[in-house]
Amino acid sequence: LSPAAPFRIVNIGNSDKVRLLDFVEAIEESLGRRAIRNYMPMQLGDVPATWADAGLLHRLTGYRPQTDVREGIARFVAWYRDYSGK
């Protein structure tokens, strides 16, 4: 850290690439319903792959996230349903 920027922005993720369709399918599975899908060609600004590089998180804290995306989505949906009463 430096006096000019006394903070760090840190990605928190498990550093695994996840296909968008796998992400959507995990949400569908957790919600118990299918998404309405409208497939389109790549749009300006779209990227073929993206993921959170959690290397800085590990270097700063020694922590390595252990929860995979499917489990994380399932936990989030369960929490949200409980929180929102739905």
Automatic annotation (TrEMBL):
Gene3D superfamilies listed in its UniProt record: NAD(P)-binding Rossmann-like Domain
Keywords: NAD
The keyword NAD is annotated on this UniProt entry: yes
Protein name according to UniProt: UDP-glucuronate 5-epimerase
Organism: Cereibacter azotoformans
Lineage: Bacteria, Pseudomonadati, Pseudomonadota, Alphaproteobacteria, Rhodobacterales
